[in-house]
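Table 4 source record.
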Amino acid sequence: MKLRRISTKFVLAVLAAVIVPFCGFAVFVDQTVAKRSLEVVKQALVGLATDLAREVDREIEHRRGEIALWTADPRTHEAIVEARSDRERTTWGVAETRAVAAGRRPGGPDRNHRREQTLAFDRYVENSRVYDLLLLVDADGRLVSVNCRGPDGAPLPELQLDRLFAWDFGAEGWFDQVVRSGEALVDHHRSERLGLRIPDDPSDLPRTYHIGIARAIHDVPGGEFAGALLGLVNWKTFDDLLRAPLVKDYFRGMVPEDVVPSPYAWIWGADADTILAHQDPRLIEERVSGELVNLPQMVADARSGTPGEAGLFREYTFHGVRKNAAFKQCAAGTSGFGWFVGVGINNEDIFAVTEELTALLYKGTAGVLLACVLWVLVIARRTTKPILALQTHTRRVAEGDLSARIEIGSRDELGELADAFNAMTRDLSENREALIKAEKDAAWREMARQIAHDIKNPLTPMKLSLDLLRRARAERRGDLEEILDRTLALMDRQVDNLREIATDFYEFTGGRKPVPQRLDTRTQVDEVLELHGAWAQERGVSIHIEGESRVVWADPGKLRRVLTNLVSNALQAMDEGGRLLVRIELPDESRVRIEILDTGAGLSPEARERLFEPFFTTKGEGTGLGLAISKRVVEEMGGDIELEPRADAPGTVARLDLPTPPEVARPMP
């Protein structure tokens, strides 16, 4: 019955282990992973929209810089001056411009500047393939010079040149803005000056649109307005940015290799409702909220976004396809047109990998389940017998029989388990006594280290005081008797301290608890500092005390030991002399604070974390038990202790907070 019951449990466990995780994971992939995929794609859309908007801004800024360079070119101003002086006698017009296009030199030497300007415009238009026209206009709004060839190198038609030289540029809004502010940006438009017809191929439609960048020209910097330069940038420049492979490559890994990703980008006007660029050129100048597109919620989302920050559109349907998209507004004002750059992707691309993985999981679950059930039936039968034997022998060990041994019948994991069990019981039997002895030895060693450490603190000042007395006698100093009395008194106190140390270690093992009483903090501090006076003098350390005396509720012997330990540590940190400051404060009505500040090397972050651990020390000597014992003693008296680097100077501050008697919260009389 047991064999069958365990085998059944194995089978049921495997069924649960396979079916539940696989089905659960399939649901997880279908929901959670799909949700996360959507979040990742949304973040990618925001990033791509931001990158494209930045590229548009960079393109506009680059063209503004080019126009600024042209207006700063002395040849541009010279051409205007030449036209102004020549206007009384003759004009520079279509014939002269066409002559330049044909390679002839029109007129005399007084027309060289306009000829050179026309040739320079031609070279730049043809090399950059960005501008269709570069127009130099004088202060009266009349054309001075224009490129005579297009980006393809072909001469401009005579009819177009006639229209340009007859045009009154002074009546246009951009000209007035240039006169007033020095620069003007002309938004997306179809220029009448070019006389372009609507092409038969919709893909050529963006070429019929332009933006304009105009900048003022002055006689001298900050001087009188002399004219303006207008550059007409072909809209195809921005349309190509949106059609760059980057837009689709951004999401290439989300769809199979033979499928082209669906993402595409667009540009809307500053009103967030006029389409300026789109993968379908027939939508140019259509309203987003109009009948043809009919997505007014996207207009509302773009307008409600935070200026300067990218945002997400609500999920929408366009031409029957569910989509997600993000947007970013370009620079506005004097730096740009405030267009909205958007990037959208079909939902089927977002969830393509998720759906493929879900289908694969469902198909694989059935095969894995069948194989697992058959294998578990075999393993369960082989596993049952040694498990039962292990159970029986475990009960014997639990009852104290360490002689229990299991017969090893195989060399698989269960055989290794039986071997380990036998080794464990054998080791337990052999090491029980050794373990007890080791624990006792460790306890005695720790106790011995603590005793040695605490005895060492009072011995150091005693030795230094004796050395001082010996030098005074050898030098036959006049204050020998005074030094002798002080040394004897110090020795007497230190003998008492050693007796208290022995008593405290007795208490550490469960003996005397702290016996708090009313103590004058100043008296305790003065006694400890006097004890270390000779040592401080030897190291060249000056000692100072600040604050009024306060009453604390503490055990005098234990408090003296803590103060001795902290002062000793401070003096040891100042090998080359320094300043030791003891400050007594009353932070609140219930506690008194004693701070000991030194000017030593300070504490490293690693040392600060382990200061109160037993056996940890940063010095080359000592057992590392002083601060651990001090912390335990202070906490037993209801206080707190901490060490940290000084904020006002190099060194360390030891802060000791002790409770006041319930009725005491004022200075000692």
